[in-house]
Amino acid sequence: MPPAPATTSAYPPGRLAFPHRHLTGIMGLQPHEILFLLDTAEEWIEPNRTRAAPDKRLAGLTQINAFFENSTRTLLSFEIAGKRLGADVVNMHAAQSSVKKGETLIDTAVTLNAMRADVIVIRHMSSGAVRLIADKVDCPVLNAGDGRHEHPTQALLDALTIRRRRGRVEGQRVVICGDILHSRVARSNMLALTALAAEVRVCAPSTLMPPEIEAFGVAAFTDFDAALEGADVVMMLRVQNERMSGGFIPSTREFHARYGLTLDRLARAKPDALVLHPGPMNRGVEIDSDVADHLTRSAITEQVEMGVAVRMACLDVLTRGARGVEGWA
Ligand code: NCD
After folding, report:
1. Is 173 helix (H, G, I), strand (E, B) or coil?
2. Closest approach atom of ligand 1 to CA 183
3. Do 168 and 269 sit in the same domain of this protein?
4. How far apart are CA 43 and CA 207, in angstroms?
5. To test ligand 1's pocket by mutation, which of 68, 69, 74 has the most ligand atoms within 8 angstroms of CB?
C-alpha cells in the first residue's frame, strides 16, 4: 500500500525531517520526507541559475560516483552537483573497474569502503545491488539507478519539475507510457507520485506491463489514446532493449504507431499538459521531435536542470550527520 498522501510541506525539524542514512529508493519514504527533499532542492535552483557565490558545504568530503552501467546525464549531474557543493568528486566507470575482471559485489563494496569515501553514488545493472553495497559501507549511499528496481533521484526531479510547472503534484493526472516492465524510472515515479497524491496512469503494451501493477495505486491502460484523456502530465519512457531478450514488441514502427507521442495524440491531454522524458530519448519511437522540442509543452531540459538541484539536496542532506550540522549529528 502506498503511504497516506501528504499535501503540505510540514515536516519535523532536523534529522527527523529525513531520518534515513541512505537513499536507495522512494520505497519506504514518507510523503513529508519526499517533500523535504523537494523543498531543499528548490533552494538550489536560483543559485545554480545565477552562479551565485558558491556554498562549498561539502568541502573536504570525498564523493565517489561508482557507475557499473553506462550513463551520461546522471553521472554528469551527480558530478556537477558534488562539485558545486565543493566535494572532491571521483568517478569510477565499469569499463575500468575490477567488476569486469570478476570481482564480487561484496569485494567491490569492501574496496569502496576502504577508500574512506564520505558519500558513494552507485549505478548498477542488478536490481538490489545498491542496497547490498549500502549495507556494507560506513558512509551514506545514493542510488543512481539499479537494474529494474529504483531510480529515486529521477523520480524526485520529475516531481519537482511537475510541482514547479503545474503548481502542485497533488491531484495531477500523470500518464507514464512506455516500457513500464523494465523501467526503474516508472517504479520510482509510481511510488513518489502516488505518495504525493497524484492520479497516476501507466500505459504499455501488455507484454511491457508488470502483473498486478494496480498494487502501486495506479490505473493501467493498454490504449494510449484512452490513457491520455484529460492528462496534466505525460511522461514518456524508452523501450529498454538492453533489459529484454527480444520479442516484447513487434517492431519500433508498430510501437510508434500505438504508443508514440505525436502532436496529434497530445491533443487528447489537457491543452496545457506537460511532456516529460528522463532521457535518453529515441526520437520517432516513443516521442516525436516536434513534441520533444515543443517550446511550451516540453519540460525535458528543465528536468535536467532540476536534476542537479535535486542531487545537490540529496548529497547535502545525507552528509549532514557526518558534517555535524546542528540537529542532524
Ligand atoms: C533512465 C535510466 O537510466 O534509468 N535514464 C536516466 O537516468 N536519465 C532511463 C533510461 O535509461 O531509459
Report:
1. strand
2. 4
3. yes
4. 41
5. 74
Ligand 1 pocket residue status of 74, Cβ below 6 Å: yes
Tell which atom from ligand 1 comes closest to the C-alpha of 71. 3
Q: Tell whether 163 is covered by a domain.
A: yes
Q: Which structural domain range is residue 91 located in?
A: 18-149+306-322
> Do residues 129 and 258 share a domain?
no
Asked if 236 and 111 sit in the same domain, the reply is no
C-alpha 327 to ligand 1 mean position (Å): 35
Q: What are phi and psi of 98, to 5 degrees?
A: -75, -10
Instruction: Please state the rounded mean pLDDT for residues 230-249.
Output: 85
Predicted confidence band at 105 (pLDDT cuts at 50, 70, 90)?
confident
223 and 101 in a single domain? The answer is: no
- How many domains is the chain partitioned into structurally? 2
Regarding the beta carbon of 279 and ligand 1, being less than 6 Å apart is answered yes
**Average pLDDT value for the chain:** 93
d(CA 24, CA 44) in angstroms, rounded, equals 22
Q: Which three cell numbers stand for residue 147?
A: 537494474
Mean pLDDT of the 212-225 span: 97
Same domain, 101 and 69: yes
187 and 141 part of one domain: no
Report yes or no: 258 and 205 within 8 Å, Cβ to Cβ. yes
Same domain for 269 and 313, yes or no, is no
CATH of the domain at 165: 3.40.50.1370
Residue 281 burial (CB < 10 Å; 0-12/13-18/19+)?
middle
pLDDT value, residue 77: 98
Are 144 and 156 in a shared domain?
no
**Residue bearing the bigger pLDDT, 257 or 92:** 257
250-279 pLDDT, tens digit per residue, is: 788 999 999 999 999 999 999 999 999 999
Report which secondary-structure segment, H or E, holds 203.
strand 199-203
Residue 73 assigned ligand-binding role = yes
Pocket test for ligand 1, best of 65, 122, 127, 151 (most atoms within 8 A of CB): 151
Ligand 1 atom with least separation from CA of 151? 4
| Proportion of the chain above pLDDT 90, given as a percent | 82
